[in-house]
């Protein structure tokens, strides 16, 4: 299994450049050491943006920000004409950073990343300001304030864009083991699902036994026996060839990145073991709230549900179901 990991340590969506590889793009321009030359492209998205936000005022402000050497009204930035205008401007004005003021990066960032990459820039030298959802759509009756907000969003996007650095991806091998911290029902269930899918699992439990809170649950509304579930889960986990169970153990160090982590496990006797793993699941559960309200701990007749369950006769509980 392979995953993409960029050199800055962040993870990026696999939706980027769908069906395209680096070979489909022109050589990347080396912009290292060059002063930022930012182009700001504002969408009108008629009537969504221009019906509320004063696009001319926005463009006038954008032209005054440091590093901005070019501004343009691109109508619909995501249309072929808009994308072509952005690429042309990058070439004509030697732009090395791009700001698109339009809609949401969630829907359109990959499109603009691809566009700047097609123009010879690294795909991560583009920044978006969402003046549609964040301004026009949420403040339709306050155009003045929406415009001021759009001006601020673009100002911030320009500031961010001028510090952007190229990011290059590389393929790394995934470590085919999961570390699961906590051996309660959640940790055990996750361990079985992962192990059954063909991956190794290190299941770390700090107490002396698997099961967690389930040890204290004797009755459930549905009527089945939670203790039988517990026994079944523990047996399946203990017997699974892909699951290593570490009881009396805690994780004392955890480093790395998605796909390639390293953890140090310390047993109660002080001995340590280092393991490598590709993912980590934290399933450390919770604790029953106690406190002192309602005379809990102060009056013998005030108890918690767990304390109530313990002495209840099973036959009586079953009769309720
Ligand atoms: C009062 C009460 C009543 C409930 N009644 C019901 C019910 O009727 N029906 C129902 O379906 N559910 C019920 N539940 C919920 C059910 O018990 C829990 O949802 C379930 O047991 C939680 O499982 P878990 O694995 O997420 O957490 P837990 O069971 O809490 O397991 C977490 C495990 O992680 C371990 N751990 C914690 N920290 C670390 C660490 N740093 N390193 C290593 N190990 C660690 C703990 O020792 C523990 O074994 C009840 C819960 C409570 C509290």
- Walk across the major sheet and give the strand order: 3-2-4-5
Strand content: 15-25%
Q: What value does the average pLDDT take?
A: 90
State the helicity in percent bands.
25-40%
Overall shape: it is elongated
Tally of helical runs: 9
Structural class: alpha/beta
Number of domains: 3
Could you state the oligomeric state of the chains shown? single chain
Major sheet characteristics: 4 strands, parallel
CATH overall fold name of the largest domain? Rossmann fold
CATH domain class of the largest domain: Alpha Beta
Topology:
Elements: E1 2-6, E2 38-43, H1 55-62, E3 68-75, H2 80-92, E4 97-102, H3 105-118, E5 126-130, H4 132-136, H5 143-161, E6 169-173, E7 177-181, H6 185-196, E8 200-204, H7 226-239, E9 243-246, E10 249-257, E11 260-267, E12 272-277, E13 279-282, H8 305-309, H9 314-320
Structure, briefly:
With 321 residues, the chain is α/β, with parallel strands linked by helices.
